[in-house]
Each structure stands twice: as structure tokens, then as C-alpha cells.
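Quick one:
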Amino acid sequence: MDHSFLPLRKPATAGLTLSSALVGLALSVLAFGCNKAPVKQAVSPKACDDFAARICKETTDTSPTCTSLKSSLELLTPEACSVALANVDTSIKKLADKRKKCDELTTRLCTDIGPTTQTCDMVKNTTKSFQPDRCEQMLGRYAEVLEGLKKQEERNKPLSAEKLAKLTAGAPPAFGPADSKVTIVEFSDFQCPFCSRAATATHTIKEKYGDKVHFVFRQFPLSFHQNAHISAEASLAAHAQGKFWEYHDKLFANQQKLDRPALEGYAKELGLNVNDFKKALDDKTYATTVDAEQKLGEEVAVDGTPTMFLNGKRVSNPTDAAEISKEIDEALKSKS
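Output:
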């Protein structure tokens, strides 16, 4: 899931602020918490770990608060941590008080976006790792943050039947029966390294599911990839000769060499009619098709590659065959 709705950078010391306060509380309890002689009790050598576990449970193990707290606790003795652990509820309350801004941020965003949306779930999980000052800054830019999240939620909505039909219309490169229970449409760029991973995942899907999946490939060359557009044209020239997937594999296997001479060399290696292939590139026969497919992608909020839709729903991780398989299995089960 995209976390770009959180653009602010936290100060270098932000990760220490809250954890330092908690450690300070532990030390103050140890130094000033008793007026009578303390009763000696057995001290667990894991007291510091246990204290950290209780605090980290309230934030997440990967949060800056948790990480810096664990580092700070390395300076304390098990005896000090034992006292802190005995008063951990006080520390948790202090933590909750400091996180009120994050709670406010989460509540407002989920109310405005929708409490049952996928984006709300992402906000709830992500803000657990934020420092309070970061949440306060985001509240100060609330309109901007909300606008970005609303756009993200719109992107997450499944495509309508009409839009999905438009993505599969015509005769684009594809495999699997058009009436399969699962239809996957990928927008890809031959010069994109992540698309190479998606191509590997695609092979796995083809081998695993066979005719249970209809897979459609669409072009989406990114403007900053110098050879992406001509490579897309070349792949369609290969498609016209019935060898799209072989050419597709060749390009992804040689992403560092996609200039015109190399594209012609791959066509020769694969046994294409090189004269027809060259003519297609010279005449820019498929340039308008590539442009049209890119526009088609923009109509369904494609803004990067690879992007995959499975029965109209955006695939969360199109480079991971296991994740795609999971979504395919769920779709097949729901259709049975």
C-alpha cells in the first residue's frame, strides 16, 4: 500500500523524544517513588525486555518510539527496569496522552474517507508508528493530506464492468480464454526493472493456472525511460508476427540494451521477418497504438508500472506471484 500521503520528514531527534520521556519516568520512579525502605523482590533479568514489549505493543515494533526505547533501555539495569515494569500502566497512560494528536488525525481521516474503506485501515496501521509531532504537523496540513488520501481511495475502487471491458477490447497481446473466470490486465514498461519482476510473476501464473486465467498485456511506457516507447512498438511488431511473448521475454531479459539495433537483433534471433519488423518501426506503425494504450491506462488511474487489475480490482503487489496467486484463488472461489 502507498504511504505517500505522509510527506513530512520528522526531525532527527523525534524518535528519541517519547522514549526518552518513558525512560526518564522509569528513573524518577526508581529514585523518588518510595519513602520507606524498599522490600527486596526477585528481579527478572528480562525486566527491560518485558517493559519494552509492553510499550511497543502500544505503538508497533517498528515504530521510532519502540526502536529508540529499546536502545535507551540498554543503559538501565534489570532492577531499574523492574521498577518501571511495575509502573508500566503509568508509562502507557503517558504514551496515550502524547499520542492524542495521532488519535485525532486517525479519527478525522477515517470519518472523512469512510471508516470501512481500505484507506482507513491503512491510516490506522500506519499512524501507529508516527511520532506525535508528525501527527500534529499533518493536522496542520489536513486538507492536503485528506485530498491525497481521497485520490488514493478512488484508485483502490474496483473498475466498472464497462471500464474493464474497455481494457480487454481489441486484439492486444494475451493468453488464456477470454471467457475465463479471472481476467488480469497488466500495464507495463519494458525498461522498468519492477516490470521485469512482474514478468517473472506472469510466467508463474501462466504455468500454475493455465486456461483458468485470461491475461492481457497493455503498453505504458514511462516518459523518462528513453527506449521504453520504441520497445513497446517493437513488441507489437513482434505480436503482429505471432511472437509477442517470446519477444516480451527477450526484452525483459535484456533491459540494459533496448536501442534500435538491439531490438532488430532480438527480432532476428527469434526468427521474425526482419524486413517487416524494421518497416513497422520506420513507419511507426504501432506508435499510435502505444499512445492509445497509455491514455487508456491514465483513464483508470495508472500512474506507474507495473499496474495490474484482476477482475477490475487493482492488484496490491503485481511483482509477487504468491500474492497474485492468493488473489486469483479468492476470485476463483467466489466465482464457483
